[in-house]
């Protein structure tokens, strides 16, 4: 079972954290600091699987970002290793070559993608198109809707969504 997923830059700053088991907020900072020490300072030639306390850590580096997944002993390390790569491919497909800034400024979208892939610590989806479908639907809806869109707003003056009470009542047939 997946216990947590962290996305950390080379400076050790956490850019994304997702916990599938309850960890007290105070303990999260210590856990993340220790995970950074375990993974970021290892040589590239070393194995990407590390034993750490009650977890196995599976990590992968992409440019300046490290994705670290904490798993239980019964989870398959290679499947998690490939899941991390799949997650990066999904991010690349959506953001067209994802960068650290894309993640920082679109954290909500990254969480949506991750939630489509992992539910309660279990892998539920790996198909890139199915993972991105809800997000693309949200993007399409956002393109179509403008602030103050609707029947009443369309009939109001173009100066914005403001109108006097009399104008609104007149439009509704009460004035």
What would you say this structure looks like, in words?
By secondary structure, the protein is α+β, with helices and mostly antiparallel strands. The protein has a single domain, classed as Beta-Lactamase, CATH 3.30.450.60. The chain is built from 7 helices and 7 strands. It has a 5-stranded antiparallel sheet with strand order 2-1-5-4-3, with helices on both faces. A two-stranded antiparallel ribbon has the order 6-7. The protein starts with a strand and ends with a helix. The model has no long low-confidence stretch (mean pLDDT 86).
Give a quick summary of the entry.
By secondary structure, this protein is an alpha+beta fold.
Order of helices and strands: EEHEEEHHHEEHHH
Discrete helix count: 7
Quote the CATH topology.
Beta-Lactamase
* Structure summary, number of beta strands: 7
Catalogue the unreliable spans: none
* Average pLDDT level: 86
Structural class: alpha+beta
- Alpha-carbon distance between the two ends: 63 Å
Domain count: the total is 1
CATH architecture verdict? 2-Layer Sandwich
InterPro entries: AP_complex_ssu, AP_mu_sigma_su, Longin-like_dom_sf
Subunit structure: Adaptor protein complex 4 (AP-4) is a heterotetramer composed of two large adaptins (epsilon-type subunit AP4E1 and beta-type subunit AP4B1), a medium adaptin (mu-type subunit AP4M1) and a small adaptin (sigma-type AP4S1).
Keywords: Membrane, Protein transport, Transport
Family: Belongs to the adaptor complexes small subunit family.
């Amino acid at each position: 079972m997946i216990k947590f997923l962290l996305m950390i830059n080379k400076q050790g700053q956490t850019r994304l954290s997702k916990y599938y088991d309850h960890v007290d907020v105070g303990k999260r900072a210590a856990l993340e600091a220790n995970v950074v020490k375990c993974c970021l300072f290892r040589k590239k030639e070393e194995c990407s699987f590390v034993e750490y306390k009650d977890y196995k850590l599976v990590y992968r580096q992409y440019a300046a970002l490290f994705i670290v997944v904490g798993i239980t002993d019964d989870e398959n390390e290679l499947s998690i290793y490939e899941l991390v790569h799949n997650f990066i491919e999904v991010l690349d497909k959506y953001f067209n070559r994802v960068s650290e800034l894309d993640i920082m400024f679109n954290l909500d979208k990254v969480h949506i993608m991750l939630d489509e892939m992992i539910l309660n610590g279990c892998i539920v989806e790996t198909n890139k198109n199915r993972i991105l479908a809800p997000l693309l639907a949200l993007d399409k809806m956002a393109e179509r809707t403008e602030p103050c869109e609707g029947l009443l707003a369309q009939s109001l003056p173009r100066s914005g969504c403001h109108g006097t009470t009399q104008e609104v009542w007149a439009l509704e047939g009460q004035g």
